[in-house]
């Protein structure tokens, strides 16, 4: 969160933005990485309750999960191409699905 204007951004987006400019993406006020601070807990709590589609929707997953449950779902998602599967030839080898 920018300290003066209080605009908030996810870490990945603001890091990418700052690689090009040292301003707030919304109002262009001067901001640097050193100025940023974490968003208030109430905002983190509200964001964690957002319902979002699984990252593996492009592979056929239809799950809609809370943001705070996404990582757990991704680890178990049957549509996750990186999820290990056991060899069907009976050797017991585990390998990525893709």
Automatic annotation (TrEMBL):
Residues 5-28 form the RING-type domain. SUPFAM superfamilies: RING/U-box, TRAF domain-like. Gene3D superfamilies: Zinc/RING finger domain, C3HC4 (zinc finger). One of its GO terms (molecular function) is zinc ion binding. It comes from Leptosomus discolor. Pfam families: zf-RING_2 (PF13639). Keywords: Metal-binding, Zinc, Zinc-finger. InterPro entries: Znf_RING (IPR001841), Znf_RING/FYVE/PHD (IPR013083), Znf_RING_CS (IPR017907). One of its GO terms (biological process) is regulation of canonical NF-kappaB signal transduction. This is E3 ubiquitin-protein ligase NRDP1.
């Amino acid at each position: 969160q920018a300290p003066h204007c209080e605009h908030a951004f996810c870490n990945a987006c603001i890091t990418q933005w700052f690689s090009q400019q040292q301003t707030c993406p919304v109002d262009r006020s001067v901001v640097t990485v050193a100025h940023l601070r974490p968003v208030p807990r109430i905002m983190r709590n509200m964001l964690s309750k957002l319902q979002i589609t699984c990252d593996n929707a492009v592979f056929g997953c239809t799950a809609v999960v809370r943001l705070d449950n996404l990582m757990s779902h991704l680890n178990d998602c049957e549509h996750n191409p990186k999820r290990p599967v056991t060899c069907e030839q009976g050797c017991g080898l585990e390998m990525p699905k893709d």
